[in-house]
Amino acid sequence: MKRIHSSNNKMPYRTAKLLYKTITYFAVKKALILQDSSQMVSQILSLNNSITSTTIPNGVYDMIYLDMDRLKETTTLENLFSYMHNDSVLIFNSIYNNATNTALWEEIKQHPKITVTIDVFWLGFVFIRNEQAKQNFSIRT
Question: Which of 81, 74, 68, 136 is nearest to 113 (CA)?
């Protein structure tokens, strides 16, 4: 992975590395970043010149990245679905930072529109693939 520099580097290396691999694997072309560390995520996205990223929702995105607190404060899960297509990935940061986030993550996993979740402890990946059976995975690193 190319070097990532930030004067306000609050994102752990393992998170940056996983995001970079996710962006590459899913061939993300358009991303929405709704989080305080949006500068850092934008920097990761900029490593691939073909990605367009924004912090203001407008359209449909291949990847949406946000902090769990942002979901509680400024948007709803249903609202986020309106920005997703069948192959989009929704990534939540801070899913176990506190009891409220943990409870919200459990609610998200049970949502009827969500077919796949992947829990890597510090991040939660959500998919709404219509053709796939409902599955919840936990990967501890």
Answer: 81
Model confidence pLDDT, tens digit, residues 50-74: 778 787 888 999 999 988 877 777 6
Q: What is the DSSP string of 29-87?
A: -EEEEESTTHHHHHHHHHTSTT-EEESS--S-EEEEEEEHHHHHHH--HHHHHTTEEEE
Point out which residues pair with 124 in neighbouring strands.
92, 119
In degrees, rounded to 5, the angle at the alpha carbon of residue 70 between the alpha carbons of residues 38 and 18 is: 50
pLDDT band of residue 5 (cuts 50, 70, 90) is very low
- CA-to-CA distance for 27 and 12, rounded, in angstroms? 23
